[in-house]
Amino acid sequence: MSRGGGPGKLRDSRVTPLTFRERLAAAIRGKVPLCPPPAGIRAHAANYSEFILTIAAAGHPRPRPHTRVISIQTSDPCPPDTSGTTTPAHTNVGEHRRAITRGVSLLTGDPRIAIRRLSGPMILAMFLMSLYNLADAVWVAGLGPASLAAVGFITPLFMIFIGLGNGLGAGVASAVARHIGAQNRKEAENAAVHGILIGMAIAAVLTLPLVIFAEPIAALLGAGEVTPIAAEYGRIIFAGAAFILFNTIAYAILRGEGDTKRTMYAMAASSILNVILDPLLIYGAGWGIAGAAIATVISMALVSLVILYWFVGKKDTYLSISPRIFVPEREITGDILRVGLPASVEFLLMSVLGVIINAVLVMVATIDAVAVYTSGWRLVMFAVIPVIAISTTLISVIGAAYGARNFDHLKAAHAYAIRLGTAISAGMAVGIFLCAPQIAFLFAYTESMASLAPRIALFMQAITILLVFIPAGMMSLSVFQGTGRGMVSLLINVFRMLAFVLVFVYIFGIYLGYGEVGVWAGIILGNIIGSGIAYFWARVYVSRLVAVVQE
């Protein structure tokens, strides 16, 4: 045998086809990928596991977890199951999707190339979305500090929906990528449909209560005198929750199959449309802060229609989300939720953290401190866009490598993503530090906001210290999410936010009496420690995976 096909795999030039029973026996010995059993076998076994146990009892050793997969090239590694079925004379594009797309090829190839090429479109798309967020803040700032602060009080709740969508999206992308890595398209498609249905169910449960009780919720969050306008903005945003969840999960499906270009097109369209609609509805139509919310909902709804066209109308994606594909499976639901729920809880905790920080800022300073924090943090999120894009892509790359049991690729992907993210973040940090006064002017171009410009600039310069440490932590969390270990990621984030950030915010901001600046210091120090813990934990985990394979 000659070595090839990537690290940890052997390639054989023989093309002798194997029967299913022969292939299963070889798979148990770790020699070939395990393909789904034919229908005839499924019909006579209580489950697939029972059949495996039957073969093992005949004298074949059962595989250990995380054993090296050694593939034998045959004329058809996983021939289609034709038992009990008939093949149509022809198929249309919708029946299709049999050819391996460029995205899937990248996803399952060299992890460094995959990260560069797949994260590139994501970086551009997220930059455009972040530019929209900045533009939205700029247009709202023109209405005065009260309106900007009102958005700041609603933002943590809005982030709950974003978090639920992104959390479930991480679970879907991880599950889809792992099934693709394991060469199981049907399960990947079923996982995609499961993810969308879960998202729509959550939207149905949460939307109505938030719309009805928007005002008391805003008051509870400490909005005070700006409660009415905060509630006005919140009701409209919450009414579009279904679009938020559908779009984020659909983006995850596309990422899971390595198609980040479509994700870029959809996210870019949403952002550009938002930027166009904001001034028209805020000032042109005279709707004020409600106009900003309506612009957001309209842009998301139109993008949802485009995504549906790709999957259902055009039908040229690798995976299908047709209802006929859906087969309720508790295992798939659990697989998605094992990553999705912890990831969603992470975003929820970040929202809760934002609420607490807003409350502390009001306590130690004034409501203007919330406006400063809201403005500056938007820029911080803009600066970490490349890191978020790379880490989001990394989930799919890690998932595909894990599904194929190629742990050398997994290790290489983790290390390369950290190097790339850190280099980009360092450049962004230098740029923000030097240009902070000029950037602050974007949020202080009105007379009522001008006095806040120096404080916004100072916050931006202080927070650049954190930017260099974020990539190591974020990429490490992606490793756990990509391998289906969402609870580990959640545990690390709980420690980061509760045990470190909040503790240091209290110590510096309240106990030591440093006020607003002390709150900033607590945020920076707590996040740096949390990133370090995530990095070392991931290094140990990946090293153990590689060690098991090499035994």
Main features:
21 helices; mainly alpha; two-stranded antiparallel sheet
| Main sheet properties | 2 strands, antiparallel
- How many domains would you count in the coordinates? 2
Low-confidence stretches: 1-22, 27-34, 36-98
User: Main sheet: which strands, in order across?
Assistant: 1-2
SSE arrangement, N to C: EEHHHHHHHHHHHHHHHHHHHHH
Percent helix among the residues?
over 70%
Radius of gyration: 25 Å
**Rough outline:** globular
What does this structure look like?
- With 551 residues, the protein is mostly helical.
- The protein has two domains: 1-87, no CATH class; 102-550, no CATH class.
- It is 75% helix and 1% strand.
- The chain has 21 helices and two strands.
- It has helices at residues 20-28, 39-43, 48-57, 93-96, 102-107, 111-141, 145-181, 185-212, 214-220, 227-239, 241-256, 260-284, 289-314, 330-364, 367-383, 385-403, 407-440, 453-467, 470-482, 486-511, 515-550; strands at residues 2-3, 10-11.
- Helix 7 (145-181) runs antiparallel to helix 14 (330-364), helix 11 packs antiparallel against helix 12 and helix 17 crosses helix 19.
- The chain starts with a strand and ends with a helix.
